[in-house]
Amino acid sequence: PSVTVSGQFGSSPKITIPDQTAGSNLTVKTLIQGTGPVLNKTDAFVGNYAVYIWSGKTHKLAQSTFQTKTPQLFSGTLLPGLETALQGKKMGSRVLAVIPPKDGYGKTGNSSAGVSASDTLVFVIDMLKEFPNNAAATGSKVSSGGGALPSVAAKTGSAPTITIPSSAHKPPNTLVTKTLIKGSGPVVAKGQTVVTQYVGSIWRTGKVFDSSWSRGEPFGFTIGATPSQVITGWDKGLVGQTVGSRVMLVVPPSDGYGKTGSSQAGIKGTDTLVFVVDILGAVNPTSS
What we know:
Blueprint: E1 4-6, E2 14-16, E3 27-32, E4 43-55, E5 58-64, H1 65-68, E6 72-74, H2 80-86, E7 94-99, E8 120-132, E9 140-141, E10 151-153, E11 161-163, E12 176-182, E13 193-202, E14 208-211, H3 212-215, E15 219-222, H4 232-238, E16 246-251, E17 273-283
Antiparallel strand pairs: 1-2, 3-7, 4-5, 4-6, 4-8, 7-8, 9-12, 10-11, 12-16, 13-14, 13-15, 13-17, 16-17
């Protein structure tokens, strides 16, 4: 007997795993064939998934975004078995992947996820929307910043560069949201899975401390989540912006890392941060 799955695309799948030991080979099945764009090796995508940990003759549900209603961005390096299962599949597809340890977490397992070295993983994934890893804002330019605010320059397809104004200009005390490129997409709303590219620098030093561009992988998060998945400045500043926009956020400590800062990033408790965020997409919560 093998793993069976029933249910419609977009709704929580019913997954039946036999009461026996898993086989040792990677098994991939397209359960529902989508008609959207094909997932290429350099793409990220937003999807919903359920994953079971199959140990010996027993199994348990580890995670389901169908249940939490929060689609996730699959970006960067995936488990080898997932990579194999998803490459070349079309958006709108539901894919089953039964992943043995050698195509999963290997001989170490993943203790934080409760996966031992001998566990097989069973994924069912609904593929919703793909994003190239060099995707950027697509709207029309309305500003480059400047004056008392940082100025932003950008070449197509590469990370924007942020120039902090002269020391005559003190950073603002409150969050500033400045639209640089205005996208023509829908308005970002609380609870959506937002997909972004961004670069972040420290006002005091002008130094870039974080960039999705340099990692070559977009960053996704649920906006306005409880507990929050990003700093307050992002939750506040990106709601109400439109998809396709590039937005500069000037974030005081109270909306950033607070009085503790972030020592590994070189951020002091008094540091104002400057982010330039491209809003690539916003996917609504799952309804099922």
